[in-house]
Design brief:
Length: 360
């Protein structure tokens, strides 16, 4: 596997569409505030990108669209309880800290609110078991903090976060999360994400077993989702948007199986835009993928030519977001905007806890 000095971006292609071309009206009541009672019984819209036709099913029917030679590629990154509510040691004032990413020396890049209380040297406490010290103010105003806790009682910072942290739900979800596992995929393994790869939330262990029994391949990649996934596109010209960078891993075993299946004529089906970004980051012009780890800031929007991904399982995304642009690059902008118009009319549930779309 190639080492993690790799930082992948892509050459921006000219695009005659503006950010506003990806706007649509969404009634607030269609923004899902909680997950489906049964994960794989949410609604599924199937979009045929060749002719734009739509079908309406439930998610567990997705197996009907998978062929034995195909391969599912999922993102097994695990969301950490990255939202910490605590107080300053000096005055006892309330404050909030949001973990963004762990640095090589074990310290963390964070967002602190209110920022005026987070000067270098400031200290905070959380739940009586975790202490944070601000060591540096990073570019853009983020704070670098060092954590202190009882290392005899807790094996890692992740155990401490499980005890005192909260899930960092997107700002459009205002309802309190009753069960932390509702915001994790059933195959989540590697801690590091500040947001869930939500396209995978609809899978159950039973459905995955049925898919494997059919002969469909299954492979896991890791991409740690950052809060940049919610960053709005503030420029009118799409290609001028600065894409966030995220850490990823794809192993030799998974890369080899993807290449083997593709050679046999199977389709590579990305589960979520995060898995899609990994595959497109590590593929050559012939669609052959390489095992590697590193960071990717690949930005996919209409005009991009897909190399590795043949089909995509995804949710319904925010207007004018980089995610709806990626989906439009694969399925065609007119097809996608029409599908979203139908989804609104049919009362589909939108965003992280919402319904699903399969693009074939």
């Amino acid at each position: 596997m190639e080492k993690n000095e790799i930082n992948i971006s892509n050459e921006r292609v000219a695009c005659d569409l503006s950010t506003h071309d990806f706007y649509y009206e969404l009634p607030e009541e269609l923004i899902a505030q909680s997950p489906s009672d049964v994960r794989d019984m949410c609604r599924l819209m199937v979009l045929d990108r060749k002719d734009g036709s739509l079908s309406h099913r439930v998610f567990r029917d997705i197996i009907d669209y998978l062929k034995p030679e195909d391969m599912l590629v999922v993102n097994s990154s695990k969301v950490i309880p990255a939202r910490l509510l605590g107080e300053t040691e000096k005055t006892g004032s309330s404050m909030e800290l949001l973990l963004l990413r762990m640095l090589e020396d074990g310290s963390w890049e964070t967002l602190v609110r209110p920022g005026k209380r987070a000067k270098v040297g400031a200290t905070f406490r959380f739940g009586g078991i975790l202490r944070a010290v601000v060591t540096e103010i990073a570019e853009g105003g983020n704070r670098i903090v060092r954590f202190e806790y009882d290392t005899e009682r807790y094996k890692s910072i992740y155990e401490v976060l499980d005890a005192v942290g909260n899930m960092p739900l997107p700002p459009y979800i205002t309802k309190k999360l009753e069960n932390k596992n509702d915001y994790q995929t059933v195959y989540a393994k590697t801690e590091g994400s500040a947001a869930a790869p939500t396209a995978g939330l609809h899978f159950t262990e039973e459905l995955l077993d049925r898919i494997r029994e059919k002969g469909v391949g299954y492979g896991e990649v890791t991409l740690h989702v950052g809060l940049g996934t919610f960053r709005p596109v503030k420029v009118d010209k799409i290609e001028e948007h600065l894409m966030h960078s995220e850490y990823f891993v794809i192993t030799d075993e998974v890369a080899e199986e993807i290449n083997r299946r593709r050679k046999l004529g199977g389709r590579i089906i990305a589960v979520g835009t995060t898995s899609c970004r990994v595959l497109e980051s590590v593929s050559d012009s012939d669609g052959r993928v390489r095992a590697m780890s590193g960071s990717t800031s690949i930005f996919i929007y209409p005009g991009y030519s897909f190399k590795a991904v043949d089909a995509l399982i995804t949710n319904f995304h925010l207007p004018e977001s980089t995610l709806i642009m990626l989906v439009s690059a694969l399925a065609g902008k007119e097809n996608v905007m029409n599908a979203y118009e139908v989804a609104v009319a049919e009362g589909y549930r939108f965003f992280s806890f919402g319904d699903s779309m399969l693009i074939v």
